[in-house]
Specification:
336 residues, mainly alpha, two-stranded antiparallel ribbon, 16 helices, globular, binds magnesium ion, Ribosyl_crysJ1_sf, hydrolase, ADP-ribosylglycohydrolase family protein
């Protein structure tokens, strides 16, 4: 990087003239991180806190609640780890992803989901830890596998619906033993895949639901229905169903990236993750060009346990590009 360019002013590579898809790929990854950082200061706050803080409608990554302005949280940190694993391994190597998660968890991140922490610090092997946790606790349908989906959604998108949804389920299962989380994560990946291809993800919900495990389809169909509203949620939005339902509602009821994220954060509750998921979808729809520059300028992602690196927007863009380009490399049938 040019040493004369301060790190917090890292330039974002220009979108290529032919880069409709490229802009959307970057939008999914950067948009998710921006949503995470936008929502973090409002986590566990009441509905309407965001619009009360920014009555003029021009929100900033303002920081607060222990977060620096522009600082992304565990959602984006884990998404980056997934993305780096996919690129560096040349495919889905679940033991490697789990090892990166464990190293990160041991690096004392500022925030980590309770369920994710239990699984990653249990000492159990990668292919048993989440299942054993679910056996004991019976509740494992948190939104923690939705929040880190942006990078894997980009990576698997070119491989088609079946490969995308299968990979999503396996990544979710690393930390979440409840199939409800696997199915929701698979739906999110599939909707992002559709959006990256330039189509409307809201029109693809029905086809995605048809691929959902029959035991879980009705409950997912309920929260993803066009008439669903966050007030209809039957759980706190730290659960997987209202989290994805709210993201779709925010996308459905707004016309741009910033408006979708503002709507998501204003719902309150688990605002960083709901906005990270919304940002994944809305970024894939509207593209990086729709992410406000006042957000990308300060956005940054610490990476505990991994040399304490801090990624900036330009680093996220580079990762997104590599994930999309890596998709030309076929993956073994065993992972499809
Ligand atoms: Mg978080």
């Amino acid at each position: 990087m040019n040493p004369r360019v301060p790190r917090d002013r890292a330039p974002v590579p220009p979108v290529r003239p032919d880069g409709g898809r490229r802009d959307r790929v970057r939008g999914a990854v950067v948009g998710s991180a921006a949503g995470d950082a936008l929502g973090a200061p409002f986590e566990f706050g009441p509905p309407g806190a965001f619009s009360a803080r920014f009555p003029d409608g021009v929100g900033t990554l303002c920081g607060g609640g222990g977060w620096d302005p522009g600082e992304a949280t565990d959602d984006t940190q884990m998404a980056v780890l997934v993305g780096q694993s996919l690129v560096e391994c040349g495919g889905l190597e679940l033991p490697d992803v789990f090892a990166r998660f464990r190293r990160w968890a041991a690096g004392d991140p500022k925030d980590i989901g309770l369920q994710t922490e239990d699984v990653l610090t249990s000492g159990e092997p990668w292919d048993l830890a989440a299942a054993l946790h679910f056996q004991v606790n019976a509740r494992a349908a948190g939104n923690g596998s939705l929040m880190r989906a942006s990078t894997s959604a980009v990576y698997f998108a070119r491989r088609g619906r079946a490969a995308t949804m299968a990979a999503a389920r396996r990544l979710a299962a690393l930390t979440h033993g409840d199939r409800a989380a696997w199915e929701g994560t698979a739906v999110l990946h599939e909707l992002v895949r559709v959006a990256l291809g330039g189509a409307d993800p809201l029109a693809a919900v029905e086809a995605a639901l048809a691929e959902v495990h029959p035991d879980h389809r009705a409950r997912w169909a309920d929260v993803l229905a066009p008439g669903w509203h966050p007030d209809d949620a039957t759980e706190f939005n730290g659960a997987v169903w209202p989290c994805l339902g709210t993201a779709l509602w925010a996308l459905r009821t707004t016309t741009g990236f910033e408006g979708a994220l503002a709507a998501a954060v204003d719902v309150g509750g688990d605002t960083d993750t709901v906005a990270a998921v919304t940002g994944t979808l809305a970024g894939a729809v509207h593209g990086l060009g729709a992410v406000p520059e006042r957000w990308t300028r300060t956005l940054h992602v610490p990476l505990p346990g991994h040399g304490d690196r801090v990624l900036r927007t330009a680093d996220l863009v580079a990762l997104a590009d590599r994930l999309d380009e890596s998709a030309e490399i076929p993956i073994p049938d065993t992972y499809i």
